[in-house]
Structure formats: structure tokens, C-alpha cells
Design goal:
Chain lengths: ~290, ~200, ~375
């Protein structure tokens, strides 16, 4: 029988991917930037983490990251969620890069489901993990068909769907992964971020890259690019509003998580963006449940 | 007769490729902005170190490469690129994923390069052009994605008629070519989305 | 006072520590060696190699041990390892006609050159639990073959001689695709379809193949032949220009022969469905060949009416590493999206209640 040749962790290339794979991904990223919102097919590799757990985002990050970068990874807005911890560790181990939980200190932010509350700058790139990149997928499951619709810029299906929502409920019933139109042309999935975050994508100073590993697509929104959430004149796009400020840092106009306190209907609302909340508390902001010693 | 020697590629291929890619990515994401491109390569003339660095960063055996006449005429250039990239060199610019242009004055019309299709607009040529100089605040005014309001760049020498060709290229969006310009130690880009006017 | 959940890193490390502990089990029981897995759970090893698409029995055995016997997890481990391997080039097509046969059966001919060779098979065993195995008995030596192996031409080649079966396309010189190196687009050619099926989940293909037998895209199949044995893998290094042997691999090949009534362009003839997998897996090879034939529906001018005939459906969903990843990703936190949905459902309920109230008041 043959012996198993086991590569050491240090035996992998910088940022895990081999150079040929990085070149292939880099080419796709450049085309994505040149065609904002268009999904570029790429030969997604099988990563040492499951499909659906950020393999697209990880491949994009691995292709762009350099030794001087500082990486932040968030899941649901938080640096401490298990998948964020796992991905951050992966890059610390395979690329030896500095990592941070501070939004302002990061050069690359890989995210699942949120855009940080702090406005991103032109020194930063945000990498979104995308499960289903195709905005028309749930209206038309066939790739051969959706590709034609994008080619023709025929987004009638999407408008019909949104309009049916209005007819039925009086408003659009999509709350996350809310479709956007990029640079007046492609309709794009922003990934399952709450629609609360959509306005942050519009004319962002940061480069926004999207990686869908299982579906083998990369797309991009360059900085200073129009990103319009689809709506109707008589039913303009609106974001979620919360009745209360964050119970820990008293922030308003941020996205909040609902935390169940007991089995008698007790609830509290706290910042989904854990770094933002910590920074505010460090600055002395106090919410109603933060306690004095916090 | 001695065998020609192929000069070296990047001293540290992993780090150098990342640094050059990062400059290219920034250049395309922010059209007209000029980025350091410290291409320390001993490439055979007329292949400039910056053209060589772009090729080594992005090109390999999985893609096609077109060379303009002065580059294609040099066996040293062809050997260098074949050795370091393994790219399939094609004669028809329409088939090229990447094109290297050493003589901007004699560059074929943009329409002769690969334009991609409406369904796969990414299957178009990225044209990498060596120019004499890049300057911030030059005579070209730029607008489009990646640009806050307006941007300015100077590209020497800017061929007569290229502005009109870029307008025609942009008019067929999402199809179209993307342009990367390199000068000594610098890179800038005009993706297909950028509108260019001369002021 | 509320404190946000912290310490994810430590929790993960602890979970992995516990996993390693559970994997080993009680230390009073001897540790299982990859050698034992490779040799005594050989069919599990074969499946992991086939769907992991990497021929390395020792590695597959180790992956099975690491995965605690979860074969899809083991396949995933092998795939992730495979990605990192450098590629030197493509092997030459293997000649299954020259296979050193361990098993070979045909359901279409009673006897044929090379004969029927039963080999190691569960077929005709009575599925009675063998309690003697628990005691670890050594079985008697198997019967030895005393004659030289006769040449065993493929059944489909025998039919081909009579022109009764569609001609297998000869090498058209086109490069063979590789869906692990280039993104799949549709319609996909048969090379890519077969690659996807060879890597595809055995259970998924089994169910699809079964569905064609029950009328969801019926293909009138006969097992022309199933053969299992070793073939030589060869490689032509560019600097040598001739093939050099790399070693032998065990393969199962299934050629399904399907009745076809003909169309405007094609005369009535038999058509083919093809299955080829690493190791011994007749179930997988047969399922693959049923689905391969079903996916050729359009080629024969038939209508796509059943799931097994739908290329985009089959190829997009046959990969168990993709499927398990996406199904299992639902256990990742989704509380941001759920919060958004909570808000919406509360709003819509309030609107509904208000409408009901209005109706009630109007009625009164």
C-alpha cells in the first residue's frame, strides 16, 4: 500500500490557493469590475470548508489579499460568530496576515449577511459571501433562461414579482437579498443582507466584491457606482426601522438583533454590528440595559 | 551560435503577482487613477517591464494572448512570454483574452478585438497598452462607475480617434474591451464603462 | 445586564477536541488502522475514491477514518485535498477491453467470448446476518482459476460489428473538458456530463436511474455488460512522445444497451448509456449509465419530460459535496435575515388584523 503524503499546513501556498487558481480568480474579478453587477463565471475550487459556508468569499479574499492587508471577517455583523471565527483563523494560518475586529482598521472585510454600520472608505474592499448570486433564480430556475434575460436586460419578471407583492400586501414583501440595479444596467443580488444595508452600497467609496463558490460566480460593484434598490414611483423603497435604540449603546439608525430574554415575551434589541456597538460603548454611550460597569 | 537566454520572471512570484494585481484591480475599479507598478523585470525589448509584469500577473496557459506586430516580431519576446506564462499566442485579436500593445500609434481598432457576447460579455479582450507617460489632471475627462463625479488623466501619446472609438466601445455595453495603460512604473485603466472626453 | 455571546474561538477548539475524542472512542477498543479500512471496508473506500474523484485507496481510507465513517464527509476531505494537487497532464484513455477481469456479466447474451465471470459479488447471497463474522473467522481460500483468461471483447463492440448499435463517436480531437477547471455552462457536452455523473452522488443517481425505469423518461435498458477489474493507466510525457505506464487502477464499467425506435434522422437501433467508476461499484456504474442515456434525450430527438432527462437539473444537483454544504449551511446563523422576516410578518399580521377589524365594523 502507498503511504499518504500529507502536506503540512505551512506547505500550502500563501493564502492557500495555488497561483494558477489565483490568476483565474483575479481575471474574473477584473472582468467583474469592468461590467458592474454582471455575474462572471469562474472555475470555483473545492475549498477545505463546505460549500454554502463562504467558499466564494474565501476564494475572492485569497486572490486579493497581500501580506500588508488587515482582515476583518463578520457573520451577521459580528466578528465572534463561529463561521467568522473559523474563516479569520483560516487566513491567519494560511496567509499569516493581521486580523482585526475593528472596522476602521481593516483593509479587507469579508462578510456574510451585513454591511458594517461605519461608512467604508476608499482604502477598503468588502467581500461578500453569496449563496445564490442570481436575482432571478427563484423566478426562473434555469441558468440558460436567466442568462438570456440578463443579456436582454429583461427584468420584467422581477418587476411583476414585486408588483404582485404590492397588490397582495400593499407593500413589497422582500426584506433581505433585496434586488438592486447596478449602474443603470444589471439587476443584482446584494447577497442576503437585510434591505436596511442596501443604501450603503450606493456610491460606496469602497470596492465591493461578491463571491459565490458553489454557484461559481464572481461579481463586483466598483466604488462610486449607482446602486438602486428596485421600487415603484408610488411605492418607493424603504428600509427597516426599529422602534427602540440599541439596548447596550443607545445607537439609533442601526440594524438591531432581537434577543429573547425569557419565555414570557421579554425581548431586547441590540446592535447587529458588534464592533460598532463596542466602539460606541467605549466612547461612553450607554443603553438602557448596558449596566454601569460595562 | 549560443542558445538565447530567457531572462528571469518575478523574483518572488507570489508576492509580486499579488502587488501587481492589486494595482491593476485598483486601476480598473477607479478609472483614471494612477497606481505604482514597480515592475522590476528584465524583459526583452520592445516588451516593457510593465507589459511583462501584467502578463506574468494575469496570463497563463488557460488564456489566449495577442501581441502587436513589434512584439510578435521579436523571438526573444515570444520566447519570454511563452516560457513565463505558457499562454497560447493567437494571431487574431478577436480571439484574445489579453492583448499586449507596445506601439499605441499602430494599435488595431478596438472593434477588432474580442468584444464578448451579450450573454457572456466577460469573454472580451483586455488590452494592455504601453504608453510614454501617464499624468494626473491631463486632458482626458472621465466619468462613469468608479469615479465620484469627474476625473482627469493625461495619457501620452493619445492616438487621434481613440476617444471616438472608446465612445463606440461604451455604446455597446455590456459588450466591449477594457483598456489598461502602463508607463514607467505606473498603471491606469479605462474599463468599458468609462466615458472619455477631451478637454 | 446582558453580555453578548463571546468566546467563539475557544468554543470551536473545544468542539474539535471533543470530536477527536469521540472519533477515537473508548481506548479499551483497539484503534482502527487505515490499512484495515482500505482492505476490509474496500467498497466504502471505492465510493470515496469515485465521488472524491481521486484514485488513492490509502488516502480514501484515512479520510473515512477521519470522517468517522461518514462517507460524504470523507469524499469532501478527498476533494479538498485533490484541489491542491499539481496537474502534470491528462492520462491516455484507459482500454477497458484489455481489463484484467475479476467480474464480467452480460444480461443480453447467455454466453459470449470471455464468458460470464461472477467474481466477488453479493448477488445470490442470502441476506442473512452472518454472526460468524462477529467472531472474526478466516474464510477458506477461494477457488482458483486454472485456465488463462480469454480475450473478453466488450458486448457493445460485438453489436457494433452488426451495425445494430449506434456507432460510438471516435476521438474528434476536441480537448476533453474538466468541470473542476472551467465553470460548467449549459448545454454541456457528454464529456462534461459523464464527468459530473462519475463524481455524482450514488444515491441521487440511483434514484434518478430508478425513476427512468418507472416511466419518468423510460429508456428500455438492458445491461449489455458490467465488468470490473484492473486496467493500466498510461501517460504520454511531452518530452518522450510515447506512453509510459503509471500503474493500474480498478474500475467498474457498465454499458447499458437501450432500445430506440428511430427518428426522422436515425434508423431504429440500439443506443448506449455509459457508466465508469473507480473501484467496484456496480450500483453506481449502472445508475450512471441509465442517467447518461436519459440525458441524451435531445440527441435522439426525444422530448425532455422527466427529471432524469433534464441536464440542468441533474448536473446542478448531483454533487453531494455541493448539496451537503448548501443544505447544512442552513444551520449557520441567519438571525439578521430572520429579524428582517420577523419584522415583516409582524407588520403583515398587524395589517391583516386591522383589515379584519374594519370588515367587522363595516358589517356591524
Amino acid at each position: 500500500m502507498s503511504a499518504v503524503a500529507a502536506p503540512q499546513a505551512s506547505g500550502y501556498n500563501f493564502a492557500y490557493l495555488d497561483e494558477q487558481t489565483k490568476r483565474m480568480i483575479r481575471r474574473a474579478i477584473l472582468k467583474g469590475i469592468a461590467i458592474p453587477g454582471y455575474q462572471v463565471p469562474f472555475a470555483s475550487r473545492e475549498m477545505p470548508m463546505p460549500y454554502g459556508w463562504g467558499t466564494g468569499g474565501v476564494q475572492v479574499t485569497a486572490a486579493i489579499i497581500g501580506p500588508d492587508d488587515v482582515l476583518k471577517v463578520i457573520d451577521q455583523g459580528s466578528d465572534d460568530t463561529t463561521n467568522a471565527v473559523s474563516i479569520r483563523k483560516f487566513f491567519a494560518k494560511t496567509a499569516g496576515v493581521a486580523t482585526t475586529t475593528e472596522t476602521k482598521a481593516a483593509t479587507i472585510i469579508q462578510t456574510r449577511h451585513r454591511i458594517p454600520e461605519r461608512t467604508l472608505t476608499e482604502k477598503q474592499t468588502i467581500v461578500y459571501q453569496v449563496p445564490i448570486p442570481e436575482p432571478l433564480r427563484f423566478l426562473e430556475p434555469r441558468e440558460t433562461e436567466t442568462r438570456k434575460l440578463h443579456a436582454l436586460a429583461d427584468y420584467g419578471l422581477m418587476h411583476v414579482k414585486l408588483y404582485e407583492d404590492i397588490a397582495r400586501h400593499g407593500h413589497i414583501a422582500t426584506t433581505y437579498d433585496y434586488p438592486v440595479e447596478v449602474a443603470d444596467r444589471y439587476v443584482m443580488n446584494p447577497s442576503p443582507t437585510p434591505k436596511f444595508d442596501n443604501p450603503k452600497m450606493h456610491m460606496s467609496e469602497a470596492l465591493q466584491l461578491f463571491g459565490a463558490g458553489r454557484e461559481k460566480r464572481i461579481y463586483a460593484v466598483p466604488p462610486f457606482t449607482k446602486v438602486r434598490s428596485l421600487d415603484f414611483e408610488d411605492h418607493p423603497f424603504e428600509v427597516q426601522k426599529f422602534d427602540k435604540p440599541c439596548a447596550l449603546c443607545a445607537a439609533t439608525n442601526v440594524y438591531l438583533d432581537e434577543v429573547v430574554l425569557d419565555d414570557r415575551g421579554g425581548r431586547m434589541f441590540v446592535c447587529s454590528d458588534s464592533d460598532h456597538c463596542e466602539e460606541r460603548r467605549a466612547e461612553g454611550h450607554r443603553g438602557e440595559l448596558s449596566g454601569e460597569a460595562a | 551560435m549560443s542558445a538565447p537566454v530567457i531572462t528571469a520572471g518575478f523574483a518572488d512570484p507570489v508576492i509580486a503577482a499579488q502587488a501587481h494585481f492589486h494595482a491593476l484591480m485598483d486601476a480598473l475599479a477607479r478609472p483614471g487613477s494612477i497606481h505604482d507598478f514597480p515592475a522590476a523585470l528584465d524583459a526583452p525589448a520592445p516588451l516593457t517591464p510593465e507589459l511583462a509584469a501584467t502578463a506574468l500577473t494575469l496570463v497563463d496557459h488557460e488564456v489566449t494572448l495577442w501581441l502587436d506586430a513589434p512584439l510578435a516580431a521579436s523571438k526573444a519576446v515570444v520566447d519570454y512570454l511563452r516560457f513565463h506564462t505558457g499562454a497560447r499566442i493567437v494571431a487574431d485579436p478577436a480571439e484574445a483574452a489579453f492583448a499586449l500593445v507596445s506601439d499605441v500609434a499602430a494599435m488595431p481598432a478596438l472593434a477588432e478585438f474580442g468584444q464578448g457576447s451579450d450573454e457572456y460579455p466577460d469573454r472580451s479582450t483586455t488590452i494592455v497598452v504601453a504608453v510614454e507617460a501617464l499624468a494626473a489632471d491631463g486632458s482626458l475627462q472621465l466619468a462613469g462607475p468608479g469615479i465620484r463625479d469627474r476625473a482627469r488623466i493625461g495619457i501620452a501619446s493619445w492616438p487621434a480617434g481613440l476617444t471616438a472609438e472608446i465612445a463606440a466601445n461604451g455604446a455597446q455595453f455590456p459588450r466591449g474591451v477594457d483598456l489598461v495603460f502602463t508607463a514607467s512604473g505606473q498603471v491606469a485603466a479605462l474599463p468599458r464603462t468609462t466615458r472619455v472626453s477631451e478637454v | 445586564m446582558y453580555v453578548a455571546v463571546k468566546g467563539g474561538e475557544e468554543a470551536i477548539d473545544n468542539a474539535h477536541g471533543l470530536l477527536a475524542h469521540e472519533r477515537r472512542g473508548p481506548v479499551s477498543i483497539p484503534d482502527l488502522s487505515p490499512d484495515q479500512i482500505e482492505n476490509q471496508l474496500a467498497l466504502a473506500v471505492d465510493r470515496v475514491m469515485a465521488e472524491g474523484s481521486l484514485y488513492d485507496p490509502a488516502l480514501a481510507a484515512l479520510a473515512i477514518k477521519q470522517a468517522r465513517g461518514d462517507l460524504i464527509e470523507a469524499i469532501f476531505l478527498v476533494r479538498a485535498f485533490r484541489t491542491t494537487l499539481p496537474r502534470f497532464g491528462n492520462a491516455e484513455p484507459v482500454e477497458t477491453g484489455a481489463m484484467a477481469i475479476e467480474r464480467r456479466i452480460s444480461a443480453t447474451f447467455k454466453d459470449l467470448p470471455g464468458g460470464q465471470v461472477l467474481g466477488p459479488t453479493f448477488d445470490y447471497t442470502h441476506r442473512l446476518i452472518d454472526f460468524l463474522l462477529a467472531a472474526g473467522v478466516t474464510p477458506p481460500a477461494p477457488a482458483e482459476v486454472t485456465t488463462e483468461q480469454e480475450a473478453s471483447p466488450r458486448v457493445t463492440d460485438l453489436l457494433d460489428g452488426e451495425g445494430l448499435i449506434e456507432q460510438e463517436l471516435r476521438d474528434d480531437g476536441a480537448e476533453v473538458g474538466d468541470l473542476t477547471r472551467a465553470p460548467l455552462d449549459f448545454p454541456a457536452d457528454r464529456d462534461l456530463r459523464l464527468q459530473a455523473l462519475a463524481r455524482g452522488d450514488e444515491g441521487f443517481l440511483l434514484a434518478l436511474g430508478y425513476s427512468t425505469q418507472r416511466g419518468y423518461g423510460r429508456t428500455h435498458p438492458f445491461v449489455g455488460e458490467i465488468r470490473f477489474g484492473e486496467v493500466m493507466a498510461e501517460f504520454v510525457p511531452e518530452e518522450l512522445g510515447f506512453a509510459v505506464p503509471l500503474g493500474t487502477v480498478s474500475l467498474t464499467e457498465c454499458q447499458m444497451v437501450n432500445q430506440f425506435h428511430g427518428s426522422a434522422e436515425l434508423p431504429p437501433q440500439f443506443t448506449r448509456g455509459y457508466g465508469l467508476v473507480f473501484g467496484q461499484s456496480e450500483r453506481k456504474a449502472m445508475s450512471m449509465s441509465l442517467v447518461d442515456r436519459a440525458l441524451r434525450t435531445r440527441e435522439f430527438g426525444e422530448d425532455v419530460v422527466a427529471p432524469a432527462q433534464d441536464e440542468e437539473f441533474v448536473l446542478s444537483h448531483c454533487d453531494n459535496v455541493q448539496a451537503t454544504g448548501f443544505v447544512e449551511h442552513l444551520k449557520l446563523p441567519h438571525y439578521v435575515d430572520f429579524q428582517a422576516e420577523l419584522g415583516l410578518v409582524r407588520q403583515m399580521r398587524a395589517e391583516y388584523m386591522a383589515r379584519q377589524q374594519e370588515l367587522k365594523e363595516a358589517a356591524e
